[in-house]
Amino acid sequence: MKKIVFFILLLLCFKGHSQSKSMFSKDPIINLENFQKQRVYFGYYLGFNSFDFKIDYKTVGPDIQVKKSTGFNVGVVADLKLQEYINLRFEPGLYYTKRTLNYPNFTREIDAVRDVNSTYIHFPLLLKFSSLRTGNIRPYLVGGLSTTLNLSGNSKSIDDNVQQKFRVKPWSTSYELGFGIDFFSEYFIFSPSIRGCFSLKDELIRDNDPNSPWTSNIESLKSRAVFINFTFH
């Protein structure tokens, strides 16, 4: 995967430039010089994610271990120019991920392991703070709030962990912070970025039994994630 990402970055960063003057040369050809003067423009993104859980406990004891995996993202971008260096961005997308919880106090795997498959519809509203453009490169910072709908959280299920159903709330709210770089090619803008996402609210639905060994000692369970997105305008 790392090799594929590296190849895509190399290919797209240099595509559309002449052989004599590259993007990083001292005197580059200026691509899409007037593109960001537009009031509104659109795009799409593809990417990867890695979700985790931040778990706070009521009493001290062995921690629940969270095994992460790499998921994928796909979505669209709507960008509104507020000022020369500030843009308002709406980036709704579909995010798929998987986490595995390992509980320490069980001997049977069927009791100790809970797979949490999540399909999210993600609605981030972000502010993008861009630096001065240098040739065909423009770094930026991005941050804001997001709300997320979990389509596979088992929130409507009457079964719980006794029946191997780990349940989380359907909606969550988060804040996001990150940075990226706009690369201006001859025909489009390629924008890789990395962003952290941190849930603000407890997402856990407790088991029906108030003394459940799976949920009774959990004070709060919040998602946190890293997104790597490749955006095209």
UniProtKB/TrEMBL annotation:
Arranged from A to Z, the UniProt key words for this protein are: Signal
For this protein, the record's Pfam families field holds: OMP_b-brl_2 (PF13568)
Query: Where does the Outer membrane protein beta-barrel domain start and stop, copy by copy?
Result: 38-203
InterPro entries under this entry?
Beta-barrel_OMP_2, OMP/PagP_B-barrel
| Position of the signal peptide | 1-18
| Stored SUPFAM superfamilies | OMPA-like (SSF56925)
Name the record gives this protein: PorT family protein
Name its species.
Answer: Flavobacterium sufflavum
Q: What is the lineage of its organism?
A: Bacteria, Pseudomonadati, Bacteroidota, Flavobacteriia, Flavobacteriales
